[in-house]
């Protein structure tokens, strides 16, 4: 026992030691970075013949950050800080001009393994605890060469290093769910990136919305990480004077133009040398932001002219020294070192990713899937149907119940599924941008994870309504009805997934889903028996029509009779509602639904392929 405890302590010490020093120091160099976008046309009837002028977001930014340095980008809102940070992190969609190199090489999948990116908004699952969040991230991002126990030990080491031990068993929480504090949530986001022991760490406004003390703790944590030879780049809006002097380098931006790049402690001296100094002692970052906005103590000074003067001064007095620093950097030495070893695109196998994502998804969604509200809704409707169709022997009523089955279990799973991917879009973008897992493993884990609730509720619904309504009391008829309904539910759920993935907007997808499913229902063969030929094609793609036909086939067979008058019997296949859809050709309906089942889910998968992928 003592030997086992000693082994555990040694493992924890070794794991903690990993984070003291980075595996591969990275020098980030960016030279004359320019980024342009084309403004989107607003309005449906915008027929202006004038060509749209490109808007320049970044106007020739140059700089270099060495291992063991922390660069802070300052500037007012709209100055291009986040755009530059996203570009340096290899996540900027579109074309970006200029040169950005990492140890002398462009951004690659190998470099992605050494890069962490913390977004401004903490994108975390609210119902997972701090430990669960970091352990699942460790299992997904750390290489398969490490055992499960070693990955968990890494997560525990990060929790300890970031001071999250007190809240490690607390849930993350969200806007409507009480959880950990904002500062702790930010440290969890940083911890997710720290798990891979990054050489290069990007952070978008890590202190945004935090009080000065909490902000100090966050930056102090980053300061400790820098000591291990890491390169840290962050945007920050208005740091306190204590924070300002912790930054090794500062980049000041104004409307995409650089106004200063250099050591933080030298910034005030530089601006004083070109004639700009505060009249009273003040926070350096406040003064720099005033300059970036063109605001001086003299209200008569034109803001635009002040900005232009500062831009010109940078190009005249500072740019040459920055370029000289870039020239001194010897790319070749680090270039040789960074070529050692080859990296596969993924850290883990497909099955490992699937199993971790499945377990994480079940833990996060169990409160939602098996909520009392959903179960109560289905039970109420089931008993209401049972009472309305109580031991019904009338053929018209029985056919009506079959159509209600197809209608209700067409709409219900559709609207459950429509919200799936729009709700997870931000998480999917974040994790796919980090190269955390394959899209196929995520999609399959989500599909399999949703199956229990997809199939349990309709099964309960059929068990209740079938016997109360007095349908045929034979096992073959019952299971035929049940399996037909479950098949239909899977198809409708697939349609919902496809619509949600294509539109990625909950309101628009809901409206579109309503129109499509109503069209399918109207063409289902119950309301209209003689559909005009020019619109009859809808029934061939209608989920409701094929489901209705199979449900009728589960209760009635050709040659059966029913009482159609006094001492008169008729064949069920001649009943108008059955005659319009037919009672044979069940195989065609099964094949049609099977094709839809595959096609809708394939469409959803293809639509998701654009999420989290950087377009070049």
TrEMBL record:
Residues 28-280 form the ABC transporter domain. The chain crosses the membrane at residues 369-390, 402-422, 443-468, 474-502, 509-528, 587-608. GO terms for cellular component: plasma membrane. SUPFAM superfamilies: P-loop containing nucleoside triphosphate hydrolases (SSF52540). The keyword Lipid metabolism does not apply. Belongs to the ABC transporter superfamily. ABCG family. Eye pigment precursor importer (TC 3.A.1.204) subfamily. Keywords: ATP-binding, Membrane, Nucleotide-binding, Transmembrane, Transmembrane helix, Transport. GO terms for molecular function: ABC-type transporter activity; ATP binding; ATP hydrolysis activity. It is found in: Membrane. This is ABC transporter G family member 9-like. Its main location: membrane. Pfam families: ABC2_membrane, ABC2_membrane_7, ABC_tran. It comes from the Eukaryota. CDD domains: ABCG_EPDR (cd03213). Gene3D superfamilies: P-loop containing nucleotide triphosphate hydrolases.
